[in-house]
């Protein structure tokens, strides 16, 4: 099994705020982490390799500092990692990002399974996984909570997808793209040996030219959408803490909630 | 582009950049790949040394051929999903602003098709474009994407809206990628820019800490968006409305469908958190999985769904399906009752747009009280059973 995992370096989003004076993002001192859903994606790739053999390739598109998440992937057991970094990739929306990742996966060649996190916690779009599948012309299985079975010989995968109201068991041909949710596994921690190995590794960087992309389809040029403006959400003011004996405040709360006529 | 000769090195752009994409090199500003082309630097540059090259695009279509606002009519267990009606409501406003028609897009098998069409019309669709095929009986990415792509290519809508459900978010990406159209995920606001007549798509990013308004470049169509359930109000239903139905065959055969649904597993406790009007949610303060029964009694009285914080799920007290928050589900009920949940930012990312938030927690300093509409500081094991009894009395249950 040749498996590709796409990971993204994201800011610890809980810390990102807008400076009310300048209306700009305040990111000073905000830590960068591997997108949490991508940790499950990588773990699933490593588990699949342990079961069926093969190799795990990990890609990340981003600025040079994104090598940190790739080093972490190496420490966890990835066989090969690649940083996709080029000024031409700047301003990419999900369409251009999926194109760039798909072209890289084609270049790697012979891939049986692509695993992505359900979505990244900064953009929260969940659009890149389906975009990669479409570009590669292979099926997609999104919101995967469990991989039930992979049959590399028959080129078949069976997964459970998490829906609003239960789960759906779906079979697909391979190669395929799956996007995974948190329930799928518990990511391992890197070993000391792995960390040492990763620290010494040089991370290959692929530019637009090396991947062989059409430069009109990456970055800003390849993006149909752009961010027109950003602003702070309306602040949700702290409300009313009901004070007093429970025998008083509980009926008071019930009164307030019943008055809203929302409970049927 | 920054003109190094004009740049005076004043650094005004550096502090204006929302994305830290600018820095100084040899006393002139340089830009790196973090740039999103938002234009904040252009506005502040006192010597106009910065320009955006936005019009250098090769993609795009003849936009004059595209008109009308379409809403994907999602089916859910034999009914039209509420989010589709909500989108028809807001779609009406957009169509009025554009002076065009509001249309539904339905992908279904023959069974019940007429009923879905009539429902879409009753909620405001003037036309319904339909692909009918046995392949569309249950949701699968391939036939749904194929049907939508075929209809959109043929009839060229200006705007296509989908509910941000697992269905909508699954195949809208396929459709947009195939059409090379823009797609904005998980919108919570939609309106028409009065000058350009483009769709302004507003959505939360960075876990809801920031709102962003996204535009499509003018040469791309259709403008596509997925929209969160419960953001827009249900429009009034008028069963006497009449509309036109346009049917197109599905250009796909069963052997071209690459996935097969083997089985449907019923949801944990059969609840749909995303649709729930009231959610009773528990966290670390519950102390054990068994103790969720205290919440279940309240939930039963209120006909509410059960939610949970990440702490409760990670402790194994309740399945992941119930998790609300950044790595779980995003919910928007009318009333969210948080019991024994401290209210981390990650949890808030999944629930802070609920209409009413009630917090019950022992710790008066818990962050949940900062966003709660009503709070009670106290032991949930004392408060929740009293609430249950009081509601049962009032609701005569």
Report on this model:
- The complex is a heterodimer of chains A (264) and B (397).
- Chain A is built from seven helices and 15 strands.
- Chain A has 264 residues and is of the alpha/beta class.
- Chain A has a single domain (2-222), classed as Rossmann fold (3-Layer(aba) Sandwich), CATH 3.40.50.620.
- In chain A, the strands form three sheets. In chain A, strands 11-10-9-12-8-1-6-7-13 form a nine-stranded mixed β-sheet, with helices on both faces.
- In chain A, helix 2 packs across helix 5 and helix 3 packs across helix 4 (128-136).
- The mean pLDDT of chain A is 93.
- Chain B has three domains: 1-56, Alpha-Beta Plaits (2-Layer Sandwich); 63-254, HUPs (Rossmann fold), CATH 3.40.50; 270-395, TPP-binding domain (Rossmann fold).
- In chain B, a hairpin with a 2-residue loop joins strand 1 (22-25) and strand 2 (28-31).
- The longest helix of chain B is centred in the N-terminal third of the chain and has 17 residues, at 82-98.
- Helices cover 27% and strands 25% of the residues of chain B.
- Chain B is globular, with a radius of gyration of 25 Å.
- Chain B has 397 residues and is an alpha/beta fold.
- In chain B, strands 9-13-8-3-6-7-14 form a seven-stranded parallel β-sheet, with helices on both faces. Chain B has a five-stranded parallel β-sheet with strand order 17-16-18-19-20. Chain B has a three-stranded antiparallel β-sheet with strand order 10-11-12.
